[in-house]
Structures are given as C-alpha cells and as structure tokens.
Amino acid sequence: MRLRALTAFLFCLPGLASAELLLGAGYVNGVIGPNIEWAGERNTFYILPGGHVASRGWDGFDEVRWVAGMRRRIERGRTAESGFFTGVLAGDLDGRHQRERLGAGAELGYQWVNEHTRWTVSSGMAVLEEVEERNEDVEPRLTIGVTATLRR
User: How far is CA 77 from the centre of its chain?
Assistant: First the structure.
C-alpha cells in the first residue's frame, strides 16, 4: 500500500514543474517533521516524513512515519493568498506510539500567507485501515494538522 501511495504522488510531480517549492516543518496526528510542499496556482501537494511525538514526548526517528496530501484553495483563491482550503490526505494517521496504521481522509483548513511564510491549520476526518493481527476494524479518526513553511 505504501508503494502505491508513493507512486501515485510521484505521477503528480511533472505537473508541478512551474510550482513554488516551500520548505518548513509540520505536525499531523502525531507525525512531526520537515514539510515539503509544491504550491501551484490553486493546488498544493505536500509530503511530511518524520517521527512520532506522543503525550510523553518525542520518540525520535526510530520509526519513520509519513503523511502526504493535496490541498485546493476554495473561494476561487490562489495558494499565494490567505484563505480557506480543502484537501485529501493519506499516511500514518493513527496517532499512537509504535502502532503504524495507515488511513486516508479529507480536511478543511485555513492558511495565512505573507511574502516570506505560509502557515496552515487544518482538521478533518480519516478512515483507518483494518489490521487483522491486532483485531482492529476499520474506524474513523479525527485529523489535526499545523504547518509552517518558508517562501522565496
């Protein structure tokens, strides 16, 4: 499943040749790390590889986690302007320590953009995969995300 998600993401990259590359940091459901975004005129694609942070603190990179997604500005806005966006995301969205569990969902958020930075806050709902070994059924999960990126 990871390979399929990564392959789908890579097929989107050629269309982003004219996009602005944004680098920063992000947090989504316990995954914290560098945030890499390709911002086109109305859409952005991002990937957030990182480690897990739990209620007891930083776990480090002993287990690499990831979240990837696509966001689209609503209200006919552009990605270089502040405003609301909707999006889809996929990755390790369980948010629990040492329990990788993939999921996919949708999000709604707001972005603050100025000349040098772009901040986003989002929330949404995802569906987590079934894990038969741990006797866990498919279940919904709330998603919370925050990113801070630098612009040229």
Answer: 20
Q: What would the mean pLDDT of 6-17 be, rounded to a whole number?
A: 54
CA distance 49 to 77: 28
For 2-150, CATH gives 2.40.160
Look at residue 87 and give its three-state secondary structure.
strand
* Residue 34: both structure tokens together: 């560098």
The model's pTM is 0.81
CA angle 10, 110, 48 (to 5 degrees): 35
Residue found by looking up tokens 């986003």 in the block = 120
CB count, 10 Å around CB of 64? 13
Phi-psi region of 2 (alpha: psi -120 to 50; beta: other; left: phi over 0): alpha
